[in-house]
Each structure stands twice: as structure tokens, then as C-alpha cells.
Design a protein that fits this description.
This protein has helices at residues 5-15, 29-39, 51-61, 78-90. It has 94 residues and is an all-alpha fold. Helix 1 (5-15) runs parallel beside helix 4 and helix 2 (29-39) packs parallel to helix 3 (51-61).
Length: 94
């Protein structure tokens, strides 16, 4: 059985050193920054990026979009979360 959206979000949170949440909640700005750091996404170039910009950078980094400019800035859907979870997991492999 495939994991739920909440299970995927919590797996990503744990993979980035954050705590699981009991309630169904999208990522905070701090959690998006932690995802960027774990994946090796350079957010310093963007100054203080917005949550939308960080979502675009993450989507481009894990291959959901060809570039940040072409990426969707909306909240992550289940296929997005699956790709991000795979990216977070891969970042810990030697």
C-alpha cells in the first residue's frame, strides 16, 4: 500500500532533521529551507526566497520541472512528495 500524503510529508520532515506532525499540514518556510539544505539546493543565490520560490527550486532539483522558472510554485502534491522523499533518501546514500 502506498504511503499517504501525510506519511510522505512526515518522512521528508524526519529525513531533514525535523519532527513529525500529528496534524495534516503543509511545509513551513523553515521546513522548506531544511529540505533545500538536505537536497543541496543553493537558496543563498536567491537571497531570502519566498516559500513559492523554494518550492520551485525543489521541484527543479528533484526533476519534477526542467528549471525553477518552469516549475509550479503551488503546494506539493503526492507525486511531488514522492519525488522529494526519494531525493531526501538518496542524499543520505554514500
Amino acid at each position: 500500500m502506498s504511503p499517504t500524503v501525510q506519511e510522505l510529508r512526515n518522512a521528508i520532515r524526519v529525513g531533514t532533521g525535523r519532527f513529525e506532525r500529528e496534524v495534516n499540514a503543509s511545509f513551513t518556510k523553515e521546513e522548506l529551507q531544511a529540505i533545500c539544505e538536505t537536497l543541496g539546493v543553493d537558496i543563498d543565490e536567491a537571497g531570502r526566497p519566498s516559500t513559492t520560490q523554494m518550492r520551485r527550486l525543489i521541484r527543479a532539483h528533484v526533476g519534477i520541472a526542467e528549471s525553477p522558472e518552469a516549475a509550479d510554485g503551488s503546494t506539493f502534491r503526492k507525486p511531488d512528495l514522492e519525488a522529494i522523499a526519494d531525493g531526501v533518501e538518496a542524499s543520505f546514500e554514500p
